[in-house]
Amino acid sequence: MNDTGLRSLLNRIESLHFEHKSVGASVEAIAATICAFLNTDGGILVVDLQSGVDDAVVGNLKLAVTDIITPRAFWSTTVQRVHDEALLLFEVPAGKDRPYVVNGKIYVREKSATRMGTVAADASAIQGLVGRTYADAQRWERRLVPSLRLEDLDEEAIRAVVKDAREQRNLRLNEKGSLEDILAGLSLRREEQLTNAADVVFGKTPALRLPQTRVRVAVYATDKGGDFQDSRICEGHAFQCMEAVFGLIRQHTPVRATFAKERLQREERPAFPEYAVREGLVNAFVHRDYAAFGGGMSVGLYPNRLVIWNSGDLPEGIRIGDLKKEHPSILRNPDIAHVFYLRRYMERVGRGTQKIIEECRLARLPAPKWESGPTGVTLTLFAGIGGPVGERLNLRQRKLMKEMQSGGLVRTGEYCERLAVSERQGRRDLMELEQAGFLDREGEGPATVFRRTESPWKGA
């Protein structure tokens, strides 16, 4: 797409969750839209930048926007370049500390018969925002912990966040300031007391007060479970714990050796893409339900799959199928997520699941699988160590893959009729193709269709 076509496309898009602003948009106008996304249900703001703009200009713009929105909120920013076009993306999750204000005004997103976009909130909208804020204020991560003291926290980890915030995120946190001020700036301290979130992300021994922060890692000898090769409990603040879990996974993950046609040396790759593993762990640490004392988080490593489970369900309005496509970012623990973002464990809000899918496709592995049940959310990554995915498909599945173009659709009934199989077998065939990353499921029940993905097919 050329620059003119891109600009034309952006100008035509209208959505409660998307807005585009041209070059020269004022700081207040940009902040007003971000404020409205925070006060409503989140969204993406795309701002045109002048060609040749440097990082300093972008950084100053982000700082200026941050400074005029109160209270302090969490969103992510990235610069995207298409040909000569430079775009600044603000990806804004729904805010938890509503109402948010810009220069004394409260903004919301509105859709009516005559307009769609950012508007100043009226009395009714403000009343609704205040009511929702009262409920959100009771969330677990914001609760104060009178027994938690500054000496119970890891000062080095706190200073590391400050350093990354300034150098990598263009966020003003006083590196030489007191720990009290820094923690207050991160919404982890108020009324001269620390919060549960502070204990989770910086506590030296959070498991003494919050046993649900422990993570169990089990390494099994077979795919059926049973005998353990290793079993450990990881403790510490969230960053220590996550690195310990990742290290154990890395230590026990099988390695595949392959020989490329153009090279004499063999290439060794871990059975599970490391970026996908790390992203899956980050999602579990950030989105889990810490308030569930009987819950927690566990990791099961089998020869051919990795299973990551965390307590808590999906956010209201989000279903399993939504994780495979663009979806609103609704954070259960925005304060914890903010610190993870500042430490560069998270890059773009609400894109983690799509990145996991893409990494598995690039590694030519089966598609990851998410499940949501009464006890929590489970992510399963498949190793596919038994050979290339295409070699494990039956003749019917191979025939379909050779005939389908990227983006093509097929229904279960159509597949059964074309390949002369029972409905039960047809569903199984299509489900296996979905798990292999060749098909995406769309819709539910009788309206379900399978769309061919862009995963390359090299089967015979």
CATH architecture of the largest domain: 2-Layer Sandwich
Number of helices: 15
Q: What spatial form do the alpha-carbon principal axes imply?
A: globular
The average pLDDT value, as a whole number, equals 84
Total number of strands: 22
Number of domains: 4
Flag low-confidence runs: none
Could you describe the 3D structure shown?
The chain has helices at 3-12, 27-39, 55-68, 123-136, 155-168, 179-185, 196-202, 206-209, 238-252, 274-287, 334-342, 352-362, 395-403, 412-419, 423-435, and strands at residues 18-21, 43-49, 69-70, 76-82, 85-92, 101-102, 105-111, 116-120, 144-145, 189-190, 193-195, 215-220, 228-234, 255-259, 266-270, 297-301, 305-311, 369-372, 376-382, 409-410, 439-442, 449-452. The strands form six sheets. A six-stranded mixed sheet has the order 13-12-16-17-19-18, with helices on one face. With 460 residues, it is an alpha+beta fold. α2 packs across α3 (55-68), α7 (196-202) packs parallel to α11 and α9 (238-252) runs antiparallel to α10 (274-287). The longest helix is centred in the middle third of the chain and has 15 residues, at 238-252. 35% of the residues lie in helices and 23% in strands.
